[in-house]
Amino acid sequence: MRDAPIGNGTTPDVLRLLNDVDPYGLAPGSPNGAPDDEYSVEAAEIAQHLTTDGAITAERVDGIWLHWFGQPLTAVIGPDATERFVVRLNGLVTPTASSNRSS
After folding, report:
1. How far apart are CA 57 and CA 36, in angstroms?
2. CA–CA separation, 1 vs 23, rounded Å?
3. Nearest to 85 by CA among 6, 13, 20, 9
4. Please, what is the average pLDDT of the chain?
5. What is the pLDDT of residues 63-90, one digit of tens each?
6. Whole-angstrom distance between the N-terminal and C-terminal Cα of the chain?
7. What are the Cα distances from residue 64, in Å, to 56, 72, 92?
8. Fewer CB within 10 Å, N- or C-terminus of the chain?
9. Distances (CA, A) of 32 to 25, 43, 52, 73, 77
10. How many CB atoms lie within 10 A of CB 1?
11. How many alpha carbons fall within 13 Å on the CB side of residue 84?
């Protein structure tokens, strides 16, 4: 699993993070796994919140997961893994220290 932010909060960025987490063990994109875009609908909804709100909470991610799968993501992967996932998601849109410096 990658630790560093990988993009700017777009759906493909979020999808890569979701595929890393792979809540249901579907191995998206692997030869014997689900299609690489298996979690694309959920990724799009998460990305929308990231770009609209500038951040997302574990509660919001749980609400999205509950809507699509009938259970919160926290129930699937646990609270610690969900919090780590949310930190990574927010890292997609959080400016770095170097971009905050005044010239």
Report:
1. 25
2. 13
3. 20
4. 86
5. 999 999 999 999 999 999 999 999 999 9
6. 35
7. 11, 8, 18
8. C
9. 11, 22, 35, 24, 22
10. 9
11. 13
Q: Which two three-digit tokens encode residue 25? A: 């063990």
As a three-state string, the secondary structure of the chain is CCCCCCCCCCHHHHHHHHHHHCCCCCCCCCCCCCCCCCCHHHHHHHHHHHHHHCCCCHHHHHHHHHHHHCCCHHHHHCHHHHHHHHHHHHHCCCCCHHHHCCC
33, 26 contact by CB (below 8 A):
yes
Residue 100 has pLDDT above 60, yes or no: no
| Whole-angstrom distance, CA of residue 91 vs CA of residue 3 | 10
Of the candidate ranges 19-23, 32-36, 74-78, 90-94, the one whose mean pLDDT is the lowest = 90-94
Which residue is listed with tokens 């919160």?
Answer: 72
Q: How far, rounded to the nearest angstrom, does the alpha carbon of residue 92 sit from its chain's CA centroid?
A: 9
